[in-house]
Every structure is written in C-alpha cells, then in structure tokens.
C-alpha cells in the first residue's frame, strides 16, 4: 500500500457474522452478498470457514471463483488439515488469502492444553505451512487483548518471521476500551521486530458497545485493516459495524484523515440484504442504517431540517444510498412539517384548510404511534368533504 493513511476494510459478515446463533444464510444468499461486497469496494471478504462444513467449503470456493476485485479469505484453525482445506477453497480466487488463528491468552491456551513454548511451536509450524501454500497469509492471536504483552510480542514476531503478511489483534470478547486498544497496537509496532513490514488489523466485538470506538482508536495508533460486518452482525453483541467505521472515517475525516475505498452509496442496499438473508432485523435506532437514523419527528427538528437540513443531519442520506423521506409524522410534529408533507403528497392548501387538517392530524397522532402517508391522504379527503 502506497498511501500510509489508507485503511483496508475486511468484511467478515459471511464468517463471523454468520456465526451469530440463528443467522445461517443459504448458498445463494451468500453468493449474492459477496457480489455486493465485491462491488462496494471491500478489500477483503472473509467468505467462510471451509473445514466447518461442506456448505461453507462450497460457498467459499464459489465466491473465490466469482470475485472480481476483493481478496477472498477463508478461516482455518492452527491445524494442518484446516489450512489445507482452506487453501483448497480459496485457491480459485484471483487474490486468495489464508487466515489462520489460535487463542493466545492464558484462558485460551488452556483449552488445547499447550504451554507457551508448545503454542509458539504450533504457530511456527502452521504459519510456515500456510505461507508455503499462499503468498497472502493472515495470522490472528485470538483473545489478544487478554494476552500477556510479552507473550503477544513473542508470538507476533514468530508469525511475521514465518511469513504472515497481516497480523490481526482481536478483541474477541469485547473487553478492551479505546485507549487500551490504541496502546496495544502502538506497543506491538514499537516492540516487535519486523512489525513495520506487515499490516496490523483490528477485529473488535461489541460486548460493551465499544467495538467502533476501539477499531478507530486502533487505526489512530497504526492499524491499517478494520475487520467488521454489515449491521454489526456477529456472535453475542456482534462485531464492529462496517457502516459505522466507514461513515465515521468519511464524516470525521477532519480529525481522522484515513481513507477507505468503500462506495458508501451501497451501504443501505447491503444492510437490507443482510438483514433479510440472516433474519436479523436492524434496530430502529441503529447508527447509520436504522430506520430512524435519518427520520425527524419533533416539530423543532422538522422545522430545522426543512429550513436547513444540516441543523440535525451530520451526513446525507444519499451518501449511504437512502432516498426516502426524512420526516416522520407523529404527535410531536409541527405545522410546517405537515404543510411540507402534504405538498409532497400533492396537496397544497391555504392556511384555514391546513389549520383544520392539523387539528385532526394531532388528534389522530395522539392515538397512533406513527401517522403514515395513507392516513394523511384519508384525513385530507375527509376534512375537505366534511368542511
Ligand atoms: O473474534 C475473534 O477472535 C475471531 C478470530 C477467529 C479472528 O473471530
Ligand atoms: Zn470475531
């Protein structure tokens, strides 16, 4: 990468996202989503975990064959058969990547019952094996944020020496906080020999609601790959949401001067497609892609946006591919919004007529959570025939 401020976007909706209980997607849905991610400008698509099932293997292989622009990556545990199976699936891609990982924290080392030296040897063996198959190898220290710093430096150095080209530092259980996330990346860049020859990645989970902040803090400290998912889909409280980090970097470019190559106008389409395929509804107040993210109901806000949209909007809906009305009619709405809404529906009315409709609209809004366009049309028609 020539631009030092370029941040790679690594999307793992089809791997970590699909690991959410109940989010399984069909083969066709996965191909469809991968095609959309490829067109959107995602740098790396983690398409699945090839050894996990025949279905995952088939999806990763097919996505690898079809991808035009993105690097296609598959996940593999630190085991030779996993890595071989992963390579079999991704090798069809124009730009394949093997992503291998192992849990390095004390809690995770206890699971395979490996001591520090045995785990270091395993990392040496598996990263070397992956690199003999593929030029593009990512290595992840699962639960890195709860791993002793000295040991983390040691194993990262081994992975780099054995040929890993990307080093991922996951906050697997969403435990870290922004300052700590930045300090960890800074510490590794300073202490590990060869750190300047690889790309450091940040992979955050959202258990404490800090995944976006932690990812951005890591970037400010020198990480140049953000791992994320559409709608923040992922196990437990999910992963860093792609739409949040990408729009944060775009909107606050003044203080975070990093660039991605994401076509942000494709965000809304992908959000809807992933929600539909996974069956996971997007919460209405979800940042960037929630149904209410650009909707204004209160009279003061509506009056403000009707006069100057920037009073209550920090990004343009069109920038994320949203072209729907931004005014929601409810009991907090004012006369100016009602007039504008009715005009949009084709009704231009004088002050007296508007006053009558407004009184009836308020009465209806008190009974109903939201007043829809059809309700307004019925109300206008009823008012005009009865007055
Ligand atoms: O959260 C995590 O640690 C992971 C690894 C497999 C990279 O998803
Ligand atoms: Zn993860």
TrEMBL record:
Keyword terms of this UniProt record: Acyltransferase, Amino-acid biosynthesis, Branched-chain amino acid biosynthesis, Cytoplasm, Leucine biosynthesis, Manganese, Metal-binding, Transferase
EC number per UniProt: 2.3.3.13
Catalytic activity: 3-methyl-2-oxobutanoate + acetyl-CoA + H2O = (2S)-2-isopropylmalate + CoA + H(+)
Involved pathway(s): Amino-acid biosynthesis; L-leucine biosynthesis; L-leucine from 3-methyl-2-oxobutanoate: step 1/4
Amino acids binding Mn(2+): 16, 203, 205, 239
Essential cofactor(s): Mn(2+)
Ranges where the Pyruvate carboxyltransferase domain occurs: 7-268
ATP-binding found in the keyword field: no
Entry's Gene Ontology molecular function annotations: 2-isopropylmalate synthase activity
Free-text function comment from the UniProt entry: Catalyzes the condensation of the acetyl group of acetyl-CoA with 3-methyl-2-oxobutanoate (2-ketoisovalerate) to form 3-carboxy-3-hydroxy-4-methylpentanoate (2-isopropylmalate).
Family, similarity comment: Belongs to the alpha-IPM synthase/homocitrate synthase family. LeuA type 1 subfamily.
Oligomeric form and interacting partners: Homodimer.
UniProt-recorded name of the protein: 2-isopropylmalate synthase
Organism encoding this protein: Paracoccus methylovorus
């Amino acid at each position: 990468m020539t631009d030092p401020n370029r941040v790679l976007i690594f999307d793992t909706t089809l791997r970590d996202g699909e690991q959410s209980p109940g989010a399984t997607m069909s083969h066709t849905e996965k191909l469809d989503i991968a095609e959309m991610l490829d067109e959107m400008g995602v740098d790396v698509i983690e398409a699945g975990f090839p050894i996990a099932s025949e279905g995952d293997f088939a999806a990763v292989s097919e996505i690898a064959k079809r991808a035009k622009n993105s690097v296609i990556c598959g996940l593999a545990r630190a085991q030779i058969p996993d890595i071989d199976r992963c390579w079999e699936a991704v090798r069809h891609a124009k730009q394949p990547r093997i992503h291998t990982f192992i849990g390095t924290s004390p809690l995770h080392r206890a699971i395979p019952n490996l001591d520090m030296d045995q785990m270091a040897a395993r990392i040496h063996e598996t990263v070397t094996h992956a690199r003999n198959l593929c030029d593009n190898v990512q290595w992840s220290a699962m639960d890195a944020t709860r791993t002793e710093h000295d040991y983390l430096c040691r194993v990262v150095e081994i992975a780099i020496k054995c040929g890993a080209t990307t080093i991922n530092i996951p906050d697997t259980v969403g435990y870290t906080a922004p300052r700590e996330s930045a300090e960890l990346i800074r510490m590794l860049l300073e202490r590990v020999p060869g750190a300047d020859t690889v790309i450091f990645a940040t992979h955050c989970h959202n258990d404490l609601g800090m995944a976006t902040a932690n990812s951005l803090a890591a970037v400010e400290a020198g990480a140049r790959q953000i791992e994320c998912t559409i709608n923040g889909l992922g196990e437990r409280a999910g992963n860093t949401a792609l739409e949040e980090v990408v729009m944060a970097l775009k909107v606050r470019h003044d203080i975070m001067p990093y660039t991605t190559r994401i076509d942000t106008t494709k965000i809304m389409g992908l959000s809807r497609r992933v929600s539909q395929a996974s069956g996971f509804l997007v919460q209405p107040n979800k940042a960037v892609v929630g149904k209410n993210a650009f909707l204004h109901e209160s009279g003061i806000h509506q009056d403000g946006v009707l006069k100057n949209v920037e009073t209550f909007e920090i990004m343009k809906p069109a920038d994320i591919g949203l072209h729907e009305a931004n005014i929601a009619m409810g009991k907090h709405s004012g006369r100016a919004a009602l007039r504008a809404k009715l005009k949009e529906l084709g009704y231009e009315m004088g002050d007296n007529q508007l006053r009558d409709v407004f009184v009836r609209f308020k009465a209806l809004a008190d009974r109903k959570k939201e007043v829809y366009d059809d309700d307004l049309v019925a109300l206008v028609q009823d008012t005009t025939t009865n007055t």
